[in-house]
Target: Magnesium transport protein CorA
Amino acid sequence: MIRTCAVDKDNQIVYDVPLRDLNNEHTVWYWVDFSEPTDQENSLLRDFFHFHPLAVEDCLDELIERPKVDFYKNYLFFLLHSIQQTTLATDEVEVFMNSHMLVTYHKQPNRAINNSWVRLKKEEGLKKGPIFVLHSIIDQIVDDYFQPVFHIEDALNQIEENSDREAVNELLDKIFDIRHDMSKLRRSILPMRDLLYRLLNSENVSFIEDQRFYFHDIYDHLLKLSEMLESYREFSADIRENYMSFNSNKTNNIMMTLTIITTIFMPLTFIVGIYGMNFDYMPELHIKYAYYMVLIGMACIAFFMFLIFVKIGWLKIGNKKNRRNRHSSK
Model:
């Protein structure tokens, strides 16, 4: 689908303008949006607009490219990353722009493009020119990054508090999922930050001077997002290490308990093994109270070894402290 709008010399906005009428002398500038284009519509990038083959290839390529800005002779080419809010999947948005045109291209319906189109149509922001529309699109794309990042922050706080008393393995699985989501966001946010930095510091885009402060505001947002992701990566790594240490310590305590039990039963098993041998002549077997004496002796040995383990600190009886509530209600 292709939708068009144009601003004429009378400062009037005209929608659904045929492509053949876009370059007439009455048009000041125009916006053409390719949404889910067909093969025939794709050919217009090369045959009608005569864009550079490399830029057209970036549009048609199925692979997700890194966000970038290329400076061609008569226009700029932007490759932007838009994030789907639920899955964090990356959608490419390509933009061709100069002072007289803006061409946007996206293979899937795009929230940022659609929101910008509707808002600018309502506010008549199209009259402010293509650079203003470009700012609106990039600003909407960057604003859509914040919600997933805030969601990651909330998820990490919930994992740290663990108010639901979930098992350590489940918490670790959640942490790995969160770090995977952060990696997805980093692959878009960091290159977008570099793109804005290059745009703001390039000598080839003098026509953005009037909007420089607005683009700098977007760059500040991307800096904030990248710093937030870095802090969350460190935070998640600390939580992961804490839970892994806790899990390892718990496993060690279980193994120690089992070892102590096995050690206590070793001499008892030795005694039972001796008197379980099938010899005809074993003097102790003929003593009247030998059975009770052996039982008492085994009990004493077990109790004595139990006291030794308690004394050296391998077994702690009655020393468990209640877990401190770090988030007590005020």
